[in-house]
Design a protein that fits this description.
With 253 residues, the protein is of the alpha+beta class. It folds into two domains: 56 residues, Herpes Virus-1 (2-Layer Sandwich), CATH 3.30.40; 133 residues, Immunoglobulin-like (Sandwich), CATH 2.60.40. The protein is built from five helices and 16 strands. The strands form five sheets. Strands 8-10-11-12-15 form a five-stranded mixed sheet, with helices on one face. A hairpin with a 4-residue loop joins strand 1 and strand 2. The longest helix has 18 residues. The radius of gyration is 26 Å and the shape is elongated. The protein starts with a helix and ends in a 6-residue tail after the last strand.
Length: 253
Amino acid sequence: MEDRSNSNKRKGDGEQEGRKSGCKRQNVSTVMEVFDCTVCSKPLRPPIFQCSKGNSICRHCQERLPLFERIPVQRCYIMERVVDNIFVPCKHGCSTTIAYYQKEKHERQCPCGPCLCPVSGCGFVAPTTVLLDHLATVHKLPTTPMELFKPFEVPVLPGSRVLKTKYNRLFLLKMDALESYGHGVSLVCVQPETPGGNVRITVGFSCAPGHNHESKWEMGPNGVPKQCLCIVPGKETDVVATITIEREDYEED
């Protein structure tokens, strides 16, 4: 018969280990729709409200209901704790742990999502990590590191280059010599084949002392590589463009 003192010791050790871990984990199966808003059927995210009938409602639906249709609601903190701890895998196979209500946003910008090669006529599709090697080895394009939301300088010279953030978010910068005009500067956003957030681009340049010009565009989401174009006048070879790229649904933290 097992000694009672040893049994109690193991029980105490287990409780102490549980307290050290700070949480209990258990593999369970459930129907994910129970974590969706009962009005819009989108994943619930804090703040979450519960009506007198027991239905869970997201903040947007609670605010949009006409006054005469509203029923008494209260904040449902227990459901908020639940959805904050429901984690699901990324469909692209990356190792990131994501909350259920963040799944759609994450998969839009996941570097493991399939992206179309931005080089005209290529048609190669792969995650950005593979696509970066494809652009370097097949198309012989150089890569320039950059950061979103921070300006960087590039010389205005004919040719193409890949702009890469630290999380392998890619842009293709192309400059073409245009007869009698100067240089055409185009930028293609390389993204997974699902809608993403708007991209804002600012290109500034100076072609002569005292002359400063700045062009801005905003490209909306459409699920395919997105391109914008500006003209840098003149044929000078010492012109430097200052470029800033922003994405409303991306963070570089």
